[in-house]
Amino acid sequence: MIPTPDLSHLSTSDYRNIYEPSEDTFLLLDALEADEKQLKELNPSVCLEIGSGSGCVTTFLGCLLKPNQPYMITTDINPLAAVATVMTGKKNGVSIDTVQTSLVTNLLPRLHNSVDVLCFNPPYAVTPSEEIGGQGIEASWAGGVDGREVIDTMLPFVKELLSEKGIFYLLLISENKPAEVIELLQGDGFNAHICLQRLAGREKQFIVKVQR
Questions:
Q1: Full residue range of the structural domain in which residue 96 is found
Q2: CA–CA separation, 96 vs 119, rounded Å?
Q3: With the C-alpha atoms ordered 54, 85, 34, 167, is the resulting torsion angle positive or negative?
Q4: Is residue 130 in some structural domain?
Q5: Which of 46, 110, 123, 170 has the highest Cβ tally under 10 A?
Q6: CATH number of the domain bearing residue 94
Q7: Secretion signal: which residues (predicted)?
């Protein structure tokens, strides 16, 4: 069993500005751990997390893949999250490069079809569209109509990023209409299915696993 990364360097005041790991984070960690054998056999060279927040997911993935250490890169529009991600990696012995940017802006064509493991716990909450676009804590949850506006902006980039052997893990909730998202990904030629799901209070969460 891979332990949850040590986040003791982050305080309550930090979590006023960056997303604190919660049930959705832990569901994504569980999906990665369930695929530990497959991920190690994949022997990834590049792992990318979009919207890294505290850095918990990428750090966990880096620990899971040890002793091999792929190139771990993350993005987050929130500058405080970018700093926290690097700190979390260092605290747990995982080297992480982070880019403060929106989604994957400036990563293409550099990472074209080069990402072997892609993770995205998106801002999925149903909100007014006007709440999207900030660079603070609201960027971690404001998803617009059906909680899908940021997700739908990201989906076309998956085929540009994912390597031939790559795996994409995407977290969704019921309001995001997972069946529609899976259909969109299948329309791009991917094999996509729900690999894990859990009820967190009233919120039903899903991990969609995507491969070519």
A1: 20-201
A2: 14
A3: positive
A4: yes
A5: 170
A6: 3.40.50.150
A7: none
